[in-house]
Here is the input.
Amino acid sequence: MSNSPLYFDIAATTPLDKDVANLMNTINLENFGNPSSIHSFGQKSHNIVERSREKIAKILNCKSSELFFTSGGSESNNIVLKGVLEKGDHFITSSYEHPSVLGLTDELQEKGIEVTFIKPNQDGMLNALDIKKAFKENTKMVSIMYVNNELGTINPIKDIAQFCNEHNILFHTDAVQYVGKKNINLNDSHIDFLSIGAHKFYGPKGIGLLYCKSGKKVNPLISGGGQESGLRAGTENISSIAGMALALEIAHNTYDENKKNILELENYFIDTLNKADINYRVNGSNRLAGIFNITFFNVQGHSLLMNLDIMGIAISYGSACSSGSANAPLALLEIGMPKEEAACSVRISIGKMITKQDIDKLIKSLSAIIVRIQKK
Ligand SMILES: Cc1ncc(COP(=O)(O)O)c(C=O)c1O
Here is the structure.
């Protein structure tokens, strides 16, 4: 068993794939031209950006003109919500969205936009019919996350998008935790807007995408030199864009193999946990492979995280996406879990670099900490 640090937090971010890092290094050293410049330095960079856009469009099965590069999932979510909704509109979202959606709702309400929050059920999912029941005459848009980042639960996005389409309501999904882990066919969906962040699928940080279906109008958040067809000004991050395209291509080519490996590790994790005689419960159903939210009864999640960290093992308590948060995970409270149990729950997410030996080490360390804490 090696003594190198172990990372069980791929839902927060993934390590950068080595081939992606090499490609980005080469581009950074060799392709510094501004993609908007007419000379050949610029045109070389422009070609990298556009070939990357085409590669991603092919994987997501949409038109390349429907894809806009952004700095990540948070920015994509902000562009859609702030760029589509106007005073007098009604907006529906869920009560356990990422802060880059939930955090905007006060501002939207101050602007005169009415917001309805739909609660997830106790299994951690939204019911498409609950969303349909909330439709009003003036409902302009619905935004529901594809996969919840704290629970890993997958929402019935196809059904929700279908209902919205039948009622002429725009539909946005924050697919940051979904894209790169499972296939998505945008041409065959009623999704109007979709947000992606590359650092969840072994791509670089600070780069993402917004998909906007042809003909759907969004006002820009950042104005300037007219890049990204005027939707998102600013000189393009060429190496990160190419890195994201390659990371998505690698993920796309290995979905089945990756899922099989992760499921095998998941089963091994549960078997080993059961043998260790630890009192636990996995929260949420219909989960994405590799993301576990687990309650270890009578053991504070924050304390567990800190103790594991001392032993060189990283897990998550609350959402790392909300900047070092030490509060009980919001999603758990929203599914109706008592506060004391939510405070005893952590997220363990298993990536493609994890081995069975790593899981042995995690569970051995978990057992030792739990026994020690419970003795106190
Ligand atoms: C569901 C979800 N949406 C949005 C984000 C934010 O994405 P980014 O870090 O690319 O801005 C995250 C996590 O970071 C997330 O898990």
Q: What stands out?
A: The pocket of pyridoxal-5'-phosphate is lined by residues 72-74, 98, 100, 145, 149, 174, 176-177, 197, 208, 321 (CB under 6 Å). The chain has a mean pLDDT of 95. The longest strand covers residues 291-296.
